[in-house]
Prior knowledge:
Blueprint: H1 9-17, E1 23-27, E2 42-45, H2 55-62, E3 68-74, H3 84-91, E4 97-100, H4 102-109, E5 114-119, E6 129-133
Parallel strand pairs: 1-5, 2-5, 3-4
Antiparallel strand pairs: 1-6, 3-6
Amino acid sequence: MLTTQLLHPEILSALGGSGHGGKVLIADGNYPFNTRANPAAKRAYLNFTHGKLNAVEVLEVLVNAIPIEAADVMTPDSGDEPPIFADFRRLLPGLELKKNGRFPFYDLARDPDCCLVIATGEQRIYANILLTIGVVPPPK
């Protein structure tokens, strides 16, 4: 039995097989993850029903499981900032959210470095975040 918060076997496998520079897409319930993400990336379907599990709940667990060196987000063409960005910033203190339009974000998610796509039941729009895995420093 694991003692960590993260228990999902496919997510653990994907993260264990990736490394520095690997990318993890947390996708909202509207994201076309079958066509707008790396086709070779492992898929984890956490979209059980509308609103469950949401993107923030997934991010809360991942921040304690992997080092995160960068975060890209999708912004609407209007340039307005989606309210969920405040939650992302709260969970990623000191990390800038790199803003990308819809189609440039899709291009980032199709990158071969995207090793894991997590489909959520998130209902808020533009609630997609692409995390870049950082390094684990050697023990002192």
